[in-house]
Amino acid sequence: MASLNAFLGFIFRSVFLGLIVAALILLFIPDLRMGSGFADPWFSRDSSSAEKISYYDALAVSAPAVVNIYSVGIEVSNNPFSQRLRERTSLGSGVIMSENGYILTCYHVVENADTIAVSLQDSRLLEAEMVGFDVFTDLAVLKVKADNLHVMPQLAESSTRVGDVVMAIGNPFDLGQTITHGIVSRTGRNGLANYVDYIQTDAVLNQGNSGGALVDSNGVLVGITNASFLVRDNRSRVRSVDGVNFAVPYQLAKRVMDEIIASGKVTRGQLGFAGSEFNNRPGILVTAVQPGSPADVAGLLVNDILVAIDGIEVETATKTLDRIAETPPGTIMQLEVVRDGNRIAMQVVVGELRAPE
């Protein structure tokens, strides 16, 4: 009898413990309560179908909008004894910016070209005409006549940050469309004044990449690539720099393009002075004044402190230069400067910034 009671007690404890374990399993694995079985990835993961990181979707919407550009120019040889005509061919890339055929590229790709051919990714070959160019940003706008053009994705207020993953799309060495990728090493400004402050990236660029697209991980355009950045080494030899490449920020490139389309060129205002900021207070210390410039004519002197323009306090040199650059030439500005402790008001007529000869 005692052995029977012990056996029944063992059975009861086992069943009770089993019920407790079952309750805990149902509590911590809700899928079992729904009858769907074990859905935990520990039990169902298939190593052959593990998710991989890919930018295919981003490139599918952006890469078809990047074109190959071939420009041909006729020039005269410099040999004084045998001056002959010779053909010069330049290779580059471009970005389709609108459905009506406007294309952005680098000016050095199409400079002095007699004919410009654009090869689309769908194998169409089109002739392009030059709309205009801007030597300061090294940008040019082309126009082609075609239907069903694939337009590059763009955002009016895109924000580019250091560390963002970017991809460069272009035609290096005429190998055909090629993709390289990296990160944004330094961001560029979008103001018209600082037209050489590009986005810096370690995405690889080579000859033929100039004028191509720099896109983010969603395929949205963040810049127009420029592969012409070279330096001289200690033997005065010209060479490229590995891991240091540049692109014109999208917002600046778009502003340049829109102005070229509207008026055939980019017009920038300028006063003809240089200055530096203070660390602990607003204002710009004038460090140089170009002779004969609008600032010189107005009476601005070295060591003057520019504190306000048109009644608005000067914050930083960069914002001030951008504001002047975006002011139409001929506009009268009211400057307020501090000279030897005295506040002086003066009028200045904004001049036009012209490209060097």
Automatic annotation (TrEMBL):
Coiled coil: none annotated. The keyword Transmembrane applies. Residues 260-318 form the PDZ domain. InterPro entries: PDZ, PDZ_6, PDZ_sf, Peptidase_S1_PA, Peptidase_S1_PA_chymotrypsin, Peptidase_S1C. The chain crosses the membrane at residues 6-29. Keywords: Hydrolase, Membrane, Protease, Serine protease, Transmembrane, Transmembrane helix. Belongs to the peptidase S1C family. PANTHER family: PERIPLASMIC PH-DEPENDENT SERINE ENDOPROTEASE DEGQ (PTHR22939:SF101), SERINE PROTEASE FAMILY S1C HTRA-RELATED (PTHR22939). This is Trypsin-like peptidase domain-containing protein.
